[in-house]
Design brief:
The chain contains 14 helices and 6 strands. The chain is of the alpha/beta class and about 350 residues long. The chain has one domain. It is globular, with a radius of gyration of 21 Å.
Amino acid sequence: MKIKKIICSAMAALLVIPALSGCKHIEKNDMFKVESQTSKTVSAVSKPTDESNTQVSQSSTDKNLITPLMWKAEDSDGNYAYLFGSIHAADDMVNHLPDYFEKAYSDSEMLAFEVDMSDIFASISTDTKFLTDIIYSDGTTIKDHISTETYSSLVDILKSEGMYNAMYDYYKPLMWESLLENIIISKAGLNASNGVDITLTTRAKKDGKEINEVESMEFQMSMFNDFSDELVELMLAQYAETNAIEEQTKEIKNLYEKWKTGTMSSEDVSDEADIDMDSLTEEQKALLDEYNKSMLTDRNAGMTEKLIEYMKGDKTAMLVVGSAHFLGDDGIISLLQKQGITVTKITSPDQITVTEKLPEAA
C-alpha cells in the first residue's frame, strides 16, 4: 500500500538528506565518527551559499513564470495575513515567484515557516541532542523495527544508487525515509536546497524581516520518532514495491508541476484518491489514520492557531508552509473559514490592498 506523501516535513526534506548522503567512509562501530561526519556534511552540503540563494530574482510584472497557490485571510476586525503554499524541494524556478507574491512579500513584516531552517543550519553541527535523536540508543537497529524483507529491499535500493553504508542500520526511520526521498527528488530533477522554505528564509533574513516558526526541529523529529513500528513498516515498505521509485518520481514531478501552476487540489492531499480503501485491512486503515493525523490533521490545527495569533499581532505576517497543509476538509483554509475568517485566493497583485495596521489600544 502506498501512502501519499506531499513532503510535509520541512526538516525531513531539507536537513537530513545531505547528512547521510555524505557518510560513505565511516568506520563500522565508531559512533563518534558517525556523528562527526554527519555534522560536517550537513554544514558543508546543506547550508545555502550566498551565490545560490541570496540572489533571488524579482518576477516580471508582465510575465508570471510560475503561479503557486496563495491566499489572504482576514477577520471581522480587519486583521489579515497572507498564506503561501510551499514545496520543500524545487528547481531554479523558485527564484521567479509571481508579482502577486512579491507585493504580499513587500507588505509582510514577518514570515512564519514550519521550521526556521537558518537556525537549524547554524546549530546542527554542535547540537548533540539532534545526533542522539536520530540514532537508536537502546541497543536496537532499524532491522529490529521493520521486516527482514523490507530491510533487504531498501538496502538493495540504496546500494543501486551508491548510497548505502552499514552504519545506517543505527539510524532511525526518519533518516531512512529521507534517504529514499532524496533519491526520488533527485530523479525528479529537484533539489532540497532550492526548497521554498530555505529560499525565502534566506531572502527574508537578508531583507531584515522577522522570522518565526510555527513548529520546530524538535517537534518534527519527535513526531517521526513516535511512530509505531507498524506504521514505520508501512511507510518504508512502500519504497520496496515493484517500480515504486520510478512511480513516485513521476508523482513528485506531477506534484511539482501542480505547485508551479497553482493547480494543486484537495485530491492531491487525500490518500483515498489513490488507495482502494475497501481493500485495506482494519489494521492498515488504522495505521493510515495514524499517519494522516500526525502529519496533517493535528499539525494543521496547530498552524491555524498560530496564524490567528499572528493576524492579531502588530506585524503583517505571511505563513509559508507545505501546500498540503492548506487544502482539504481538515486543512488550514477550511479551519479558518469555520472560525468565521474570510479566505481569498490571490491571483493578481491588484487584489492586495495594503492596510496600515494601527497599534492596539493599551
